[in-house]
Amino acid sequence: MSVTVAADQQVVSAIVTALEEVLGQELTDVTEQTRLFDDLSLDSTSVLGLLMALEDALDMQVDPEGLEQSHLETVGSLAAFIAESR
Amino acid sequence: MAPPYPSFLAGVKSACTGSADTPFVLLGNFEVEDEWARDEVGLPTVGGRASTAIVNRMDEFAVLLAGPGDHVVLKSAPDPDYLAYLTDLGIALPTILVTDQSDPAATVSEDALRSPRLQAALRDLAGTGAHLLPHGMSTLEARLCEATGLAPSLPPVPVVKAVNSKVYSRRVARDLGLPLAVGWECETVAEFAEAAKEAARSVAAGRRVGVKDAYGVSGKGIVVVEDPRRLDQLVRMVTRRAEKTGDQRIALVLEEWADKALDLNYHFTVGRDGSVRFDFVKEALTENGVHKGHRIPARISAAHTAQLVETADRLGRRLAADGFHGIVGVDAITTGDGGLLPVLEINARNNMSTYQTGLQERFMGPGTVALARQYDLTLTGPVGFADLRDQLGDLLLTTGGGSGLLVNNFATVNAAAPGPDDPRPYAGRLYGLLLAGSEAELADLDHAIARTVRKETVNV
């Protein structure tokens, strides 16, 4: 199940930067369709680092436990969740 | 030291059951930490801790740990061409039992508990004196023992769980006076807030600090902090959660990241009688803290090896005194200044290195060097073992000696395949033990395999 949205490009770009930080590698082919767990091998605790980096980058607070699995399906679905939380 | 046995596994049987001939039923319930963590409070998690389809198919590793008189429970039958390949290498395989159903999101233990037909077969085996040897013992495997009458090889769950906590690892290392990274154990939110303040000073001084779940799977359940603000954020998140749930418990350790030269994994077996057998030390290969494989033998000094042998003996005695018997692996590191931190964490369960022991005994001579590793694949459709064998050609180990890749888990290659209607590429993992006569040959072999699997099995 993936969520299709017209994601905010500022949020997508912040997510990609945050992903590079938590995964410790440069990401070149990430799109809104990229799957966080299947394609990038993110695990549930790396997500925590990701959220903290996003809190900083976008100056906001995220409740990790408010996040559902479907929000973490793809870069696009996470961007949609973050955009709604701002 | 315990007396030597004809094989690693025979020694484990003797240690855990009192006889080197006890038949085992093996169960590869990887990431058993998720079960131990179930009633613990750790780092905030998102999206649950469900294991991935690939991790759940790591169950197939148990096939090569077991002997011909043993049984192995798997989520699905191995590729027949893979089994034929192993048999052609002269490996005497165990009897394979398959769960009645296989949910990709479930561990082999969860599937086994929903499998009446399998359980009937296990009840028959219980009658022959078979013991269950899981990857690690949690309430799920205890329930399987109760349901089938299989005797557990390992101690009761509360004992196993207690000695697998990273809080326990640090406390035991400190009690025994072993060198230990600067760090803090936290069992309440208040302790965590206090430790975070001290850790923030370490971070501000330019050191990195790892915040680890007491029951995190190796390489997961860790936040590496390089910015003191992250610690404030974590304390805030954890405090908010505690206010919401009214539960002030937490099980975390914070630890300064040492200046690592090499990762090591050493292994010993603790007997019911309190005896301790040192098994081996291997160099561990990690990438961003995630386990990627082993190098055998480890490139460490004789003095460091001797220190680890002695540490294993002391840890083993302590574990025995705390009621544990069974297989234990410990992660350690050598440091940039030539030192050794002998206890990063104690894993009183099978380790990845455990599953290579039978292959080492059979295929590694005195001059052999080996590399256990995984190749990450991107696939667009299921790949059979016969396809892979054709693509690898001479790179695959095909005789009892010589060099080549010995595939030691094939189920993980196709484990994450989506439904037939989903055209998206998916990740696969190929695990193997590479054997060669020299360092240079080993490196060439590794590069050649990496090139082949990247080019040939990717149909994107």
From TrEMBL, chain A:
PROSITE patterns: CARRIER. InterPro entries: ACP-like_sf, PP-bd_ACP. Pfam families: PP-binding. It comes from Micromonospora rosaria. Residues 6-86 form the Carrier domain. This is Phosphopantetheine-binding protein.
Automatic annotation (TrEMBL), chain B:
InterPro entries: ATP-grasp, PreAtp-grasp. Pfam families: PreAtp-grasp. One of its GO terms (molecular function) is ATP binding. PROSITE patterns: ATP_GRASP. Signal peptide: none annotated. The keyword Transport does not apply. Keywords: ATP-binding, Nucleotide-binding. Residues 170-377 form the ATP-grasp domain. The keyword Nucleotidyltransferase does not apply. This is ATP-grasp domain-containing protein. It comes from Micromonospora rosaria.
